[in-house]
Every structure is written in C-alpha cells, then in structure tokens.
Design brief:
The longest helix has 21 residues. The chain has 17 helices and 11 strands. The protein is about 50% helix and about 15% strand. α15 packs antiparallel against α16 and α16 crosses α17. The protein has 3 domains: about 140 residues, 3-Layer(aba) Sandwich (Rossmann fold); about 170 residues, no CATH class; about 70 residues, Rna Polymerase Sigma Factor, Chain: A, CATH 1.10.1740. β10 and β11 form a beta hairpin. With about 375 residues, it is α/β, with parallel strands linked by helices. Bound molecules: NADPH dihydro-nicotinamide-adenine-dinucleotide phosphate (NDP). The site of NADPH dihydro-nicotinamide-adenine-dinucleotide phosphate (NDP) has 27 residues, from α1, α6 and α10.
Length: about 375
C-alpha cells in the first residue's frame, strides 16, 4: 500500500486524482487532504477516504470543518501553518493541486520530505523556479509533472538523452477565444472565458487558457523541468488537444504523446510511475476525430507567451513577478473589475515596474510575490 496526500483536494485536479484512488482503494492510504474554504466537500472526502488530517487553509472555515468531522476521529486543522504541517507529514506521493502561488509553501514542505511530488500547481514552480529545483535535488525528491503537456514531454523524454533533443514543442488548444478579433476580445466576459472548448478545469486556469498565460506559465515550467535551453522550447496551437506535446530529436524523429482530454490520464501516469494503471477514460478514437490541425500562435492578440518567454529569459525573480501580476489580474477580471485584454497589459505594466534581485530562498520568493501582488492591485484600482 502507498500513502498519498492531496493538496487542493476539492478542486478539479483533486477530484480527478481521488476518482482514480476511489477505483483502487486497496492500493492507497490517504494521509492528508486540504482545501481553501470548502469545508463541507473536504469533510465528505476526508470521511470517505478515512484520512489522518483534513486542513482548510482559510482558518475562518475551521469551525465548519470541525463540525462536519465530529465523531470521525479525523484531525481537523486550519490556517497556512496547518497546511504546511500537513504537507510535511510526508507521503509516498503528494499531489500538489492548489491553484496559484498559495500552493508554493506546502509544496516545498512536501519536497523537503523527499517523496514523489506529482505537480499540477504550475504557479508554484514558475514562481520558485531555481529555488524549488534546488530543493528537489537537495532532499532527493522526485518531481513528476501532471500538467498534461509536461507529462507528455516527460514520457517522450524517457529512455532518451537530453543532449539529443532538438525541440520540445508544447501544444496549446488556443482556448475559447483563439479565433476572436481584438475588438471582440476586449468585450469578452468571465462566463465566456471559463467555457473551455476541450477541458473541464478550475476558473483560474480556464482564464489563463483563454489569455494564453497558461501556455506562457507552461513554457516557464518546461524551462525548469526540462533544461534543454529556452531556445529549444516552442509552442504550437493544436485546437483538438489530442497531441499533448512533442519532442523532436537530432535525427529528425519526433515523439509525441496522444490521449483524450481528460486529466485522469496524466495523473494516472504519475500515480503509477514507473508502471501504468487503468483509467476509466474512453480510448482515443482517431478515426472518429478525423483531423489533427496545427498553427502558429498569434502573439499580437495573445501577448502572454511573449511576456512569459521574456520573463524566463530574464530568470531569477521575474517569472514570480509575472505569475503574481497575472493572478491578481485574473481575479480582477473574474470579479468584473478589468477587461479581458487588460490582463496581459497589466502584467506587462507590473513587469516594467518591478525587477527584484534573484531570490535565494522560499521566503525571498514569497516576498517578491507579495510585492508584485501589491503593485498589481494598485493598477487594478487605478484602471
Ligand atoms: P481549482 O480551482 O478547481 O481547485 C483549486 C484547489 O486549491 C481547491 O481545492 C481549492 O480549495 C484550493 N485552494 C484555492 N486557493 C487556495 C489557497 N489560497 N490556499 C490553499 N488552497 C487553495 O483548480 P484546478 O484543480 O483547476 O487547478 C489546480 C492547479 O492545477 C492549478 O495550478 C492549475 O494550473 C493546475 N492544472 C489544472 C488542470 C486542470 O485540468 N484543472 C490541468 C493542468 C494543471 P477550495 O475548493 O476550498 O476553494
């Protein structure tokens, strides 16, 4: 039996992970499950999986969690320190599925225990970059990407030498607005932005997908996970989301990973790694799909990938600034405070105003994140 912790258990990735665990109950013992504020769903999951501890990051929801777990013998805890403590209990596999840089400190706590970290929380890696990769090395942890593109690349790289890689190509669906004019984009609503054509995901990543910041964050994520050089990382728009990414080698061979648009496939790949496990996903029916198409990204309508590439080139603290500014802009867009096209413009403005020195520790990264958020909030209120 292997032990598992899910950070962000009540979200979309959390649900997909626990669906797989539910189908293989006799192989897994669940140690800890966490949420932000959704005490009711968290308590339900904690009871179902008989966990040791359930944590709400927002302490205001701890009384509700305690009530819901009364008599179960399950420990209930709340607040950021409790979240870190739960992650630091260690598990054979920790699924890092909190959204945003809020997941960074608990993910680092899990890394320090040296187990397998199945990483969905791309904002944590984008923000902490070198600091996180150094911790993975120092504590002997294993970082397995469950972002579908990075999981695909990881699979395509297995058994091959990095030195022979010519290109790593990240595919992007292009999001719900890929064919929209600039004028139409300016008037796009949150409801339209979160209606993704291929994937069913949380609100933040859905907006990121619409702006292409998701692909920008993924470019930075790939830069840290697969250090073949930024100039060997490319993005291509592939509206069907069937080819999840590709690696081309020096001899002209391109390896790709294909699969249904269902996060249970990459999650299963990480949970079972280096073996394989069954998923309930429908098999890929290429004859039914008929056509796979590809096109170049448009960085005029969608400047996010350019901004991310520039941030990755600058390195150090700059990706953390980009991420924090984007998180604030996305929240402001979802809250009706700024327009869709202001998201990228605002991130660019914050990047132009703040260039802190490279962070040397987790606390440096969190300081950069906090300052960049403060600057982004000022822009929201002055817009
Ligand atoms: P969701 O919004 O669906 O879920 C987020 C989870 O994190 C919830 O459990 C939520 O708790 C918790 N959470 C939110 N804010 C905080 C906080 N401040 N502190 C602690 N916990 C918090 O997100 P997704 O599952 O869609 O995405 C999770 C991560 O995975 C993101 O980084 C995303 O980019 C990445 N990812 C997601 C994919 C997908 O298909 N959804 C695909 C690839 C990557 P509560 O429910 O209480 O709010």
């Amino acid at each position: 039996m292997r032990s598992l912790t899910v950070l962000g258990a009540t979200g979309s990735i959390g649900a997909s992970t626990l669906d797989l665990i539910r189908r293989n109950r006799d192989e897994w013992r669940v140690v800890a499950l966490t949420a932000h504020s959704n005490a009711a769903d968290l308590a339900g999951l904690a009871r179902e999986f008989g966990v040791e501890i359930a944590v709400v990051a927002d302490e205001a929801h701890l009384p509700a969690l305690r009530d819901a777990l009364a008599g179960s013998g399950i420990e209930a805890a709340g607040g950021p320190a409790a979240l870190i403590e739960a992650a630091a209990r260690g598990a054979d596999v920790t699924v890092a599925a909190i959204v945003g840089c809020a997941g960074l400190a608990p993910t680092m706590a899990a890394i320090e225990q040296g187990g397998i970290i199945a990483l969905a929380n791309k904002e944590a890696l984008v923000s902490a970059g070198e600091v996180m990769m150094a911790a993975v090395e120092r504590y002997g942890a294993t970082l397995l990407p469950i972002d579908s593109e990075h999981n695909a690349i990881f699979q395509c790289l297995t058994g091959n030498e990095r030195a022979h890689v010519r290109w790593i190509t990240l595919t992007a669906s292009g999001g719900p607005f890929r064919d929209w004019s600039w004028e139409r984009l300016s008037a796009a609503t949150p409801a339209e932005a979160i209606r993704h054509p291929n994937w069913d995901m949380g609100a933040k990543i859905s907006v990121d997908s619409a702006t292409m910041f998701n692909k920008g964050l993924e470019l930075i994520e790939a830069h840290y996970l697969f250090p073949v050089g930024l100039d060997r990382l490319r993005i291509i728009v592939h509206p069907q989301s069937v080819v999840h990414s590709m690696v081309e080698y020096r001899d002209g061979s391109t390896l790709a990973q294909l699969g249904p648009s269902d996060m249970r496939v990459p999650i299963a790949s990480a949970l079972a790694w280096p073996a394989r496990m069954d998923t309930p996903c429908a098999p890929l029916d290429l004859a039914e799909i008929g056509e796979l198409t590809f096109r170049k990204p448009d960085e005029v309508r969608f400047p996010a990938t350019r901004l991310a590439r520039e941030a990755a080139q600058a390195g150090g603290a700059i990706p953390a600034v980009l991420n924090a500014a984007n998180e604030i802009a996305v929240a402001a867009f979802l809250g009706g405070q700024i327009s869709f096209t202001r998201i990228s413009a605002q991130v660019e403005d914050v990047l132009g105003s703040y260039a802190p020195p490279p962070p040397g520790s987790l606390s440096d990264v969190l300081d950069v994140d906090m300052e960049a958020r403060a600057r982004a909030r000022v822009l929201v209120t002055s817009t």
